[in-house]
Each structure stands twice: as C-alpha cells, then as structure tokens.
Amino acid sequence: MGQPVRDYLLTLCVTAAVTYLLTGPVRKFAIAVGAMPAIRARDVHREPTPRLGGIAMFGGLCAGLIVADHLFNLNAVFELSNEPRALLSGAALIWLIGVLDDKFEIDALIKLGGQMIAAAVMVIQGLTILWLPIPGVGTVALTQWQGTLLTVALVVITINAVNFVDGLDGLAAGMVCIASAAFFLYTYRLWYGYGIEAAAPATLFAAVLMGMCLGFLPHNMHPARIFMGDSGSMLIGLVLAAGAISVTGQVDPDAMKLFEGSERQATHAMLPVFIPLLLPLTIIAIPAADLILAIVRRTWNGQSPFAADRGHLHHRLLEIGHSHSRSVLIMYFWSALIAFGAVGYSVHSASLWIVLVIVGLSAVGLVLLLMPRFTPRAPRWAETFVPPRYRRRGTAAQGEAADGPAPDGEAEGRQVPGGHPVASEAPDRAPVAVGVSGVNGATAIGPRSRFAVGDRADSSR
Question: What phi and psi values does residue 132 have, to the nearest 5 degrees?
Fold first, then answer.
C-alpha cells in the first residue's frame, strides 16, 4: 500500500511544483499581452489583474501525467487504458478555448460549443459512461448515444459549475482541491481496497488535479496576483468531470463481492457505496447549487442563463458583511463538509456517528454564517504571535503605543465598507477594503505591493 501512495504523492508534488513555478512567468506574459480586462460591474477586485493562470495549470497537468507514465505502479494505467490520453486531448481543447476567451472575450455560446466538442473528443477515445448501477433495478447498460449524451451533459455541467463559482480570490481552486481530495480517497479505496482496476485512472486524475490547485493557490489567495481565468476554471472543471466519468458506470457491483443474492439486491444494498458514483455532483455540490440558482435567477428576470451578475453565493456572503477571506473559508467549509460527508457515508453507512458529526458541523457552519462581523481573538499568551487585528483592544493599543503614533486615519477600529475594523500593521501600508482584491505584488506568498506604472493594464490593447 505504501508504494502506490508514494507514487501518487510524487505525482501530486511534481504537478504542484511545475504549476507554481510556471505561474510567475505566465503572469508576466499575461501583462505583456494585455490579458488584463478592465474592471466590470460584477467584479469584486478593484485593480486590473492578469488572467491566463490556466496556462500554468495546464503545464502542471502535462508534467503530472508524464511523471506518472514513468512510475512503476502507475504506468499500468497508461498501458491498460486510453483514458489519460483522452483526458489530455479534451483538456488541451478546452484550455485553448479558455485562453482565447481570457484574451479576446469570446461569445458564451461558442464556449458552450467548445465544451461539448471537448467532451465528445474524450468520448471518442473511450472516456465515457458505459452503464449505471440503479438501486432496485440493477446494472443498466447504456446505448452508445445514451452514454455519449450523459457524458457530455456531465462534463458541461461540471465545467460551468466550477466556472460560475470562480468569483473570489482562491475560491474555485480551493473548492476543487477539496473535492478532488475527497474523490481521491474514495477512488483509491475502490482501486487498492477492492482491486478494481477501473478506478485507477480516476485516482490518478484526482491526484493530478490536487497538484494543479495546490500549485496555483499561493499566487491566487487574497489579494490575488493572477486569476486562473476561463482557461483555468474550465480546465479543472473538465479534469474533475473526467475523474467522475472514469469511475462512474465502469465498476461492476459484483466486483466488490460484499453481498450475496441477485445483482438487483446487491445494487440496492450497496447504495451508500455508489453515492459518489451515481451522484458525482455531490462532490461539487456548492458550485452545482450556485449554477442552478444562477440559471433560475437569470431566467426569472428575463435574462440569458449565461448573463453575468453579482447574485452568486460568494457575492451574497460579501453583501451580508463577511470579509473576503471569511467568505472563501465559509465556502471551503461547506464544500469539505459535503464532499467528505458523502465519502464517509459511503464507507460506513450504518454508523450513526457520521450523521451526528455532519449535523453538528452544519450547525457550526450556520452559526458562522449568522456572525459576519464577529472577529476572533487570540488567547493572551498567543497575542504576540498574531496580527494586531486578532489581539484584544488593550493589548493592541499598547503595541501601537510602543511602535509610535499611527498616521491619521489608520487607528484601530477604523471602519471600512462591510463594517469591519481594520488595524494598521505598518505605518506605510494603506489598508485594503473588505472584498477588494486591489493589491497585486511581486511574490506569491510574501507581502504584496501595488502595481508599478509599467505593469498597469491598458484597456485599449
């Protein structure tokens, strides 16, 4: 068991490292070619920020697949299955469409057509749903056209769900990383625990996807230095969908041999085991819910389902008073709760404690949603190790007095849009308003400074 895990970990680390190292040069390239659209009404950030982060993520995907092809325990995935090549073909096509959209803003219907073509390319090369295990009925074989339509629909829905949720710094990459981590645990259990080789490609896809997101996140966390753009959001959405398609419908219910009796009885008894297979969108339940609500909202208002607005879940979190970082963390929390809850239930469906834990964590999440202006305070013994905004008022005031008087307008407790007090950590740094990712610096994880004059976007290009 240890050797396969090490191979997956190596693949993940190589993917993350390549993505991380490529993002810096890609950012400079995006600025040079003018891939920095002007600020739109629905945008949360307030300064032009380069896109095309999907270029670095696609480089990480290619590097991860190449490394996996040369590892002893993972090479069999490429020898026995054509699914990795099918994924790479579809990913290359959807990535190219995303790059063109990041630079030239192509029409939404053209993007939709490109998504369908990318899904069809994967179907032609064998990455498709062959049958569905339906409780009470048994394994239902799908015709070629049924499998193709279902595969294309799943790819398009997943891509647009991830694309719609990509509205805050680090949100889409973090949520997809959480979903892929949960899916990796599930598919690895199927592959190694039950010896089902059909789950091996999906396990590899999940590991590579985690690496892509982890490598990009340091550059994309608030305040973001670069956005993944459609070239990144559509790419990770397609990889996530490919993992679900790879394992859905290709695992025989009798392969696990957990139940005796007819196939219909076995399928019905194994319903919890097939939850992530039958309903792969539970892994991205939050983006999927946001997608459905957006379509209903826009259609109800007489708009096109593809018309952009500021009614997404993350926009509403900002409107009720949550800060940018808190909104992202809340979305992370709900994504992890749903994804890992579904996986945990599939493993031990008869355990009552899993349901109780999910209910308890849901209650904690609701409390966090209802306390948008609550500021956590660190214990007194830890106050010297945390930023001033997390210290108690008296201690923070003493610290400011020791450092000298603060400039006018930077005293603790100053209100900014959103109702949050902002404490000054440095006399020469202007505070950033809540919900505004207006600082774009020169390093991925260090302090960010504002754009130099030469780096500013020219909307005429």
Answer: -125, 130
Q: How far apart are CA 77 and CA 56, in angstroms?
A: 24
Model-level pTM? Answer: 0.73
For residue 443, what are its two tokens? 């390093």
For the chain, report the end-to-end CA distance as a whole number of angstroms: 54
Cα separation, 36 vs 454, in Å, equals 13
Q: Quick check: 383 and 392 in contact, CB under 8 A?
A: yes
Rounded to the nearest 5 percent, the helix, strand and coil shares of the chain are 65, 5, 35
Q: Rounded CA gap, 37 and 50, in Å? A: 8
Q: The dihedral of CA 345, 346, 350, 351: what is its sign?
A: negative
C-alpha span between 191 and 259 (Å, rounded):
18
Structure tokens at 41: 């009404």
pLDDT along the chain (461 residues), means of 10: 80 97 94 77 64 95 95 89 93 95 89 95 91 69 89 90 81 89 87 79 94 94 88 94 81 55 54 53 65 78 68 69 78 82 71 72 72 65 66 53 43 42 42 39 40 40 41
385-394: long-range contacts at Cβ-Cβ below 8 A with a sequence spacing of 24 or more? 387/423, 387/425, 388/412, 388/423, 388/424, 388/425, 389/421, 389/422, 389/423
The kind and range of the H/E element at 139 are: strand 138-141
Q: Which two tokens stand for residue 112?
A: 């939709």
Cα–Cα distance measured from residue 372 to residue 321, given in angstroms and rounded to the nearest whole number: 5
